[in-house]
């Protein structure tokens, strides 16, 4: 007796994110559907939450453009990603995290906006502040404001005379609505914050020695390091607002990694900031 298999109308496959590779292989068994449509190679379209990404397919692998998709969708190691084939090289993609629930994303957010929002970050290893290079293609008044804010960040970072490593980052809407904050890559690498996820402590400058929050440091698939779970509580408790500057000074206390965080307001005219607080950890 011959058993006839019925081809799915929209075949699907899934992948579990196991590492930070800049490409992703399509399962061998699934490739027959692409061969049937004679689309083994070319430019795929990956769609998620009303947005789309163009990704090169070569050798049945998602290659150029995959890293952008992974970054913009905040893929983490352990995420479960489902690809629904819509014909040709078009896929609707759903992402599930370790809670077994589908991730939620802001609708109609341009996938490059996050990079633009993170423009202006500065870091230091305890010496001169270093600009974390980002591309800012905004125009008009938005560009003027971004440029002024970037200059203000540089000015304030240069005025900080900390012995401990630190970085300065302006708060963007993305940081306050998605409740995540990206640590500059060079800062993360030079201070041993890459390679695994773990908890850090954030301390503010409040009274009675300040308050503290445990925050998860998460490794993104593209190599970035983010403050994630727990950042929300810190941002809300400190009433963070867009365009405020946060200065993160890295300390080691009782074997724990601690960020001492100072928040200052940016003003487009006049004196932009109060002078930085004295570095109590400075050497005599």
Explained architecture:
It is a single chain. The chain is an alpha+beta fold and 284 residues long. It has 2 domains: 12-96, Beta Barrel (At1g16640 B3 domain), CATH 2.40.330.10; 117-264, Beta Barrel (At1g16640 B3 domain), CATH 2.40.330.10. 20% of the residues lie in helices and 30% in strands. It has 7 helices and 16 strands. The strands form 2 sheets. A 9-stranded mixed sheet has the order 9-8-10-15-16-12-13-14-11. Strand 4 and strand 5 (61-62) form a beta hairpin. The longest helix is centred in the middle third of the chain and has 20 residues, at 140-159. The chain is elongated, with a radius of gyration of 22 Å. The termini are far apart.
How many beta strands in the DSSP annotation? 16
| Biggest pleated-sheet summary | 9 strands, mixed
Residues in β-strands, percent: 25-35%
CATH topology of the largest domain, by name, is At1g16640 B3 domain
Instruction: Please tell me the CATH architecture of the largest domain by its name.
Output: Beta Barrel
Dominant shape: elongated
Structural class: alpha+beta
**Which class of the largest domain in CATH terms?**
Mainly Beta
The number of domains is: 2
Helix content: 10-25%
Instruction: Report the radius of gyration as a whole number of Å.
Output: 22 Å
- Order of adjacent strands in the largest pleated sheet: 9-8-10-15-16-12-13-14-11
What is the CATH H-level superfamily of the largest domain? DNA-binding pseudobarrel domain
End-to-end CA span:
88 Å
Number of helices: 7
Uncertain runs: 108-120, 125-139, 280-284
Q: What order do the SSEs take from the amino end to the carboxyl end, as H and E?
A: EEHEEEHEEHEEHEHEHEEEHEE
